[in-house]
Structure formats: structure tokens, C-alpha cells
Design a protein that fits this description.
single chain, alpha/beta, ABC transporter transmembrane region fold, Rossmann fold, six-stranded mixed β-sheet, four-stranded antiparallel β-sheet, about 10% strand, ABC_transporter-like_ATP-bd, ATP-binding cassette subfamily B protein
Amino acid sequence: MGDAGESGRRTLFGAEELETPAWALGLEATAQAGPLAVARAVPRTVAILTRWAWQGSRRWTALAVVVHLVSGVVTAFGLLATADVFSRLLAEGPTPERVVAALPALAVVVAALAARGLLDAAAGAVTAELVPRVERRVQTDLYTALVAVDLVAFDDADFTALVDRAEHSVTRIRMGASVVGDLVSGSVAVVASVVAAGIVHPLLAPIVLLAGLPQAWAAVSGVRLMFASTLRTIAQARRLAVVGDLISRRDNAAEVRAFTVGGVLADEHERLATELSREGIRVEQRRNALVTVGRAASGVATALGYVAVGLLVYTGGLALPLAGTAVVAMRAASSAVQTSVFGANLLFEAGLFVELYTRCVEDARSRRRAPAGPAPGAPEVVELDGVTFRYPGQEVPALADVGLTLRRGEVVALVGENGSGKSTLAKLLVGLYLPTEGRVRWNGRDLRETDSAAALEHVALVAQAPVQWPLRADDNVRIGRLDRDDPADRAYEDALGRSGAAEVVDDLPRGRATVLSRAFQGGRDLSGGQWQRMAVARGLYRDAPLVVADEPTAALDARAEHAVFSSLRELSAGGDRITVLVTHRLANVRTADRIVVLEGGRITAQGTHDELMAAGGLYRELFALQGRAYAA
């Protein structure tokens, strides 16, 4: 899987084997954006964040805008009031009379400072109300888009990687939202300082403004370096996360220890982490160099500004009282520029993650199925006509030219060796996947033309690896159909009994009220076989006319397995259901109405057990092999 490492052992997790996702390649241009592009990007990010804030709360958003604008205006007013104080005190030398005369102007300055402090506190309170609403809006949009995504999207590694990065982007977006107001008030303060300096003398305005530009350039360049590095190291980061999960997850702990590969995994983690840390150090050193250059250049520019003020005073171009105002304006501008640069820096950084996030949401929305008509009702006949299916990024189809018809009242078994396409075919039958070629019809109607959610209301799926819902035991069953009317718990108890899950629930410390997850205090975990019994109970409780059980007993003992298959076969006994059993244990499907044999993604035979045994072929071969294993 990789090249030899320093120890001579072949690396297990070679990041070079992972291609950079197409969505990441598209973001590289953004990471290399020039100053003008950055100048356009920050307002665009502000607009997006403001829109999300407006959607979260119009009242708090409007209040935030008012508070931050007023804060900036108060800063400007304080600067002008300061100029008035200097003029009154220093115009002809300070005297007791002039000091008294300057007191009203001084009171205005004090009032402006006090108002600015109160407005800062108000801004903090408004931000505290607004930022969580932005975060909630962002998370809601993301997960609303994801729950509607077509299932096959999650078989696309690029898409799942994009979703992972988008989830991590929410924190950066929250940080960006928290500084929008500071950037607004800081920008107003910068404008006020520049205007105040310009009023003192026209030459001082550009000097005040230019003093902050080097820091802005350094900050933006540093963020560009960071984001470009993030894109370059996506493959390494994905590998590192995989190795970390292997080491830390409870599900992996037993096998990692049984095969004594903990040390190997730790070494692999150290190797990948070292590669990433080298890149991180390189980027941070370059960012530090940029910041140093920016600060030095800003310091030089500020010093030149003071020199310019001194020369103007020396040559008589600037009165001494106004020189004091110029110095205050320059210091205020320096502080405001630092605040604005910090805010713009965070917003540019947040903007990159906003773009990544919005790309994910747009991609997710594009992967939804097109709006279609109502479902054709409970399926009486399910037909597959020339169905071929390819997984994303795969050239070889998982199924090829499959034709099959299922009718209500039948119990149909799908059998074959691993990788033959059984589970894929099961997902196509119920509409979880749509075929790449061909048609899947319910009651003569193409599933492409029906609402997928409405169609799935008629489906009960017992998955091979069922979700281990971190809910109460009874809710683990009822989630099969939460809106089912079962006031006396008769359907719930029946599902528990027929699935063998009743004894599982009875053994729990709080019975049905026990939460099935160790992530919660007092919660309990189940064994693999117990989880499968709960999954079967969930499928039975759903009470759907099309039941698909995909290897539902892989982790069960022989007695429990026999009971589960008997219950599943009984579902179609009344003639009102189609039951599909996917299994590799052929003894359990001998009584099926029809057995469909798959080889290499194609149907090679179908018939009853006796017919297939008489015909020879793969089914008889596999059945004989399993029979000899039990006989031995």
C-alpha cells in the first residue's frame, strides 16, 4: 500500500495513493488569490455571514449593525472632540482660563470614551446572541441537505471527504461570524482616523492609511499559505484520521491487541503526523516571516508619519495644536487598522471555509433525486428490466443486465458468493439505488418517476450491519415506524417475540428504558448478535409490504437464526408481502418460493431449491460444500 519506510518495512498507509479530490483542486485558485481578489472576497464573506445571521434572527442582526456602526461613529466623534480640546488648550499656550474653557470639549471626549465602552459591551452581548444562531443556521442547512442526498453519493469517497471538511468548517465560520461586527466598527474607526488626519492636513491622510497596509498584506498572505497547505495535505490528513480511529475506537480495540499491531499503528501515526508537522512548521515559519516583515514595514511607515508631522510643524505647515490631533489620529488609526486587519484576516480565512462549506451544500443539493410523482402504492409486482449499476468511480459494474420479477406473496432468496452483487440488487429493488442503465418498476411504474421517500414508506430493510441507535431499547424498535399507532404495545411486543429480541431487552438493567450506548451514563452496549435481533425487530415492527433482509443472521447462533428466518418467511404467508432474503447460508432458504443465484453481478440461475439442485451449477456446488462442512 505504500513505499518502504525508514525501518525498511513497507508503509501501510501511503498518502501518495490518494488523489486530491476534484473539489479541492477547484479551491486552489481561491487559495492563490491576489490582493484585489482578497479585497473582493472579504465583503462577499461579510454578505454571506450577514445573510445567515439575518435568517437566524432579523432583530438581533439589525441591532448588531446599529451597535457597531454607532460605535464607529462615536470613535470618529471622539477624535474630532480631541482635536477641539487640543486647539483650546494649545492655541496660545495653556492658561487656567483656557483649561476651564476646554472643559466642555474635554467632557465630550470623556463621554465619547464612556459611550464607546458601553457600546463595546453592547456589541459583545449582541454577538453572544447572534453567533450561535449563525452556527445553528449553517448546521441546519448542511444536515438538511445531507439527509436528502441520494444514497449512492455516500459511496463516492470525494463527496464523503468534502462532507467531513464541511463539518469541520463550521467552527471557522463561527469564528468569522464573531468578528464581522468588529471589522465594521474597526473600518469605521479607520475611516474616521483618516478623515481626522486629512482635516488636520491633506498629506497626513494617505500616511495614516498606508501605515496599516503592510500588516494587512502579511496577514492575508499568511492565510493563503495556510489554506494552500490544507489543500495539499488533504490525503495525508485523511490517512492520519484513519490510523487515529483504528487506535482509539472501541470497536477496533480487541483486534488491534489480538494481532499485536498497536505498535505498528503507533509508528504509522507518528510517520504521518511527522509529515504533516513538517509541512505545518514550514507554513508557520513562512507566516511568521511575513508577519515580521509586515510589522516592520508598518513601524517604518508609522515612524515616517511622525517625521512628516514634525517637518510640517517645523516648516509652519501645521500648527502645534493640530500636531497633537494628528498624533492622536495616527495612534487611533494604528489601533483601528490592527483591529480591522485582524478581523479581515479571520474573515478571509473564514471565507475560504465558507466557500468550501457552500460547495459541499451545493454538491449535496445537486445529488438529490429530482422531484417526482407519488409512489405507486404498495408494490404488488417489482420488475427489473436490463438493470446495470456502477458505483461512483468504478468502471466495472456491480450488476450487469439484470432482469427479475417479484410478486406479492413470494419469498425470494438472493444467493451467491461474496461480491456477486446480492446487497446491491437488494438496494435497487427497494429504490435506495437507481440503476445506471435499465429500469426498476413497481406495479409498472418506473421508480425514477416516483417520490423516493414515499416509495420507501412501503419498505422494511434489515441491514447486514444495522445502525446501533444510541436510544432507549424500545425506541430502537419503534424507530422502524415512529408514527405507528400502537397504544397497547401489541405490535412492539410481537416484533420483540418473533425476532428473539425479547430476551435481549429483558436482560437489560432497566429493561426497555435502557439506553443502548455506553456514551451515556448508565447506558449498555449489545453484542453483534443482539444488535441483529434488535434490527430484525425493527424491521418486523415497520410492517411494510416489501421486506428485504440482508444477511440478517450473520452474527446469530443456529437456534436464533432458525427463529428469525421462520419469522421472515411467515411475513409472506398471508400473500400480502414480498419478502427478499439475502444470505450465504443456503440451508435457510431451502423453503423459499424462488432462489436467485448471482455470479459476477449477473443472474445465472433461478428456481426452487429442488430445481437448482437438479440443474447443477454454482448453487448445488455451494450447498454441497456447506453440507459437507456441517457433516464433518
